[in-house]
Amino acid sequence: MDPILEAQRLLTRRQLFAQGATGIGAVALASLVDETSANRSSQPAAPAKSAGGLPELPHFAPRAKNVIYLFQNGAPTHVDLFDYKPRLAELHGTPVPMSYLQNKRFSTMTGDPTGKKMLAPLEPFARHGESGAWASELIPYTAAISDDLCYIKSMYTEAVNHSPAISFFLSGAEMPGRPTMGAWLTYGLGTETRDLPGFVVMTSISKGSTCGQIFYDYYWESGFLPSRFQGVQFRGAKDPVLYLSNPDGMSREVRRALLDDLARLNQINLERLGDPEIETRIAQYEMGYRMQASVPELTDLSQEPKHVIDMYGPQAREPGTYAYNCLMARRLVERGVRFVQIMHAGWDQHSSLTTELYTQCSDTDQPSAALVKDLKQRGLLDDTLVIWGGEFGRTPFLQGDMSNRPRWGRDHHPYAFTLWMAGGGAKPGLSYGSSDDLGINVAENPVHVHDFQATVMHLLGIDHERLTYFFQGRHFRLTDVHGHVVEDLVS
Q: Which of 85, 119, 306, 340 could form a disulfide with 398 if both were Cys (CB 3.0 to 4.6 A apart)?
């Protein structure tokens, strides 16, 4: 059979539409392979000018270049940590006023909230810094850097269960399948490093936690974007990245020769089929080769000053802990990684508020504050945006029996909660918006999830309405068809 006709017969619809970009991709891949083959150095390159990304981005001068998202899976309790409500103590043990809960939907664990008892904050609050921000005694390290933080105390969302709510924050949709924020940003802005992925993910959970939170891969997926923009998970183990090490008996030179031959074979397939995923495969093989040198250097803490490691807390040398991941996040952005997503589970305290909330704060408070201080001391905070927050808040009323304090808990609460940002153009020393006197509903300056996403993208020099991707007949974006930039949060 004529080979041209055979190729046409095998061509899929997706490949047909992708063919137009093959010529440019082939040139870029040839350059990539030649450059990698020529550069055999094991030393990682310093952050350089952005590679990849769209030519029209950024749309305007960015305030931030990198993002570290400290995502607190399970939803921290805003009324016990950040949102001081004296009236909760006054009404402690009395039924929740139903006038605050009209048409409100809660999880099946609460169901009908009628008769639920109000629960006072577990620990006292105090004002901190020149900004006078309120913070609980549970988070003394975060409280101490309040003047560097931009609190949003009027967040609200639409989902009442964890996975949809997390997906909503990270991808703009409750159902899995959309690109996540890190994928959008590396697609649009590219990366400043050749030796590490542009989007890195690390996970942790407090030891002994009974809060069952699962880290689904779709929390860092690329969705319909090319798969090279998917987050790369670094594990808390001896080998942070699976299958990165060479098998016994294979030298680095043999690996290089094998990859060169494999790239040529993949290039033949790319030219024949025009499938962009083949282009991704070649690029990721090359990335894996470079990471064989860059990842050991990244995770070698021998050159870190002791006082810096100590600042992150006693778990900072223990791979897989939140403290270690926060230190790694600083080292990653220092080396040019665009988006670092740290996910820490265990905040889902339905019946463990009086025990595990203390553990969570102990494990996360010091490292979170240390990360902000460390970035600031190194001059990196100006163009690194740090975000701390969960998928929703917790109810100001009790879940459980008031007479059984060891089993006190709070249920999911999407109607008003708090997150904070630092650096990267976010206005420091600001407490924006407010909830009502019971912390149940937003009272002033509401900020929807899509508004928050639009603001983050604005800080990175992106007009959220213009960064789109055509898929299944329409242009998609992170904020869907919603969202506006909250200018008051911008420094």
A: 119
